[in-house]
Amino acid sequence: MFDFSLQAVDGAARAGTFTTPHGAVKTPAFMPVGTRATVKGVSREQLAELSPQVVLANTYHLYLAPGADVVEKLGGLHGFAAVDFPMLTDSGGFQVFSLGASGGGESKGYKNKESLVKITEDGVEFRSHLDGSKHFFSPESAMETQAKLGADIVMAFDECAPGDSDKRYARRAMERTHRWAERSLARHNELQIERVAAGKHPQAMFPIVQGVVYDDLRAESAKFMAALDVPGVAVGGLSVGESKEDMYRVMDVVAPLLPVQKPRYVMGIGRPEDLVEAVARGFDLFDCVLPTRLGRHGSVFTSAGTLQLARAEFRASDGRIPVVPELETKVSRTYSLGYLRHLVTTDEMLGSTLLSLHNLEFLIKLCEGARKAVLEGRHAAYLAAFWRARGGRP
User: Fold this and answer.
1) Is the dihedral of CA 339, 344, 345, 350 positive or negative?
2) Among all residues, which ones are annotated catalytic?
3) Is CATH 3.30.420.10 what the domain over 4-288 is classified as, yes or no?
4) pLDDT of residue 105
């Protein structure tokens, strides 16, 4: 079921197809994030028009509300959200360590003076950011929750160490992630037997390479995850505050160590320049909340960089969002900068939706363009043209 075939390789860049129960995923591909089984501000119909290869949902958030049992009862994520394209759920690990650490804070009306995230070999105890209630995730429970949610691709439970971790802690977190990956896989395999017996579609589990910005740790983690019997491998802990130099260097270290015949997924990157650089290094799948987050705050991707639409110079502009022809979107073709600025500055809900749609379509098309370039053997020229439109590499 979860076959990955490479159609072409150009330099390190790849064009492939990953088969899932809900359709074939053509890579490289940007995957929109639907945290709570919805991409913020975007309807199912609007999202479908963008032809996303995969859409994400978040295990942590759906576990808290409405609960994995409710999603399962309502047909799993595909039935719950009434979608038919491939879906992926993360394990909740990143959110446990970020949102769980805040416990919601006093702004939510409750006080908590305890240590908010407690990590043991068994798993992680954390507090809900919604109401401060205590919860516990283990590798096994994370896989059980994701089985109930029913995505096509699920992620192993990992410890995403802070980007500024010293090497000693980074190693401890990485080694724990390795042990948790093995436990996640063991429970995942048991759950797949149960799913098949119940007539449900199978799921693919990807483990997650960790190691912060330490090259030797990243290499060790990549080799460990590459040896597991899994359909694909992810790289986590990037785009969390490290420099671009560190991010790209880690990609350079990891990519050659990952299996050629499996999809490679870099988690949490969503800036156009990061996508094209990741593709150039041999990665296939990417996700990030950034396109919709920027859209809600009045910013759009352009061929030259990110544009803030609230600027006064656009008040009466009849121009369009500046993009090269192959990256034109429905929004950039249709609406003037003056109208879009009006929506932004008057806090109209439509503004957030239109800008989010533009940003999502821009990234989806960026990856589609990269795929086409690889298939035609001109990826180096595609990458050069991308940077030329931005005035060259920084």
Assistant:
1) positive
2) 90, 287
3) no
4) 37
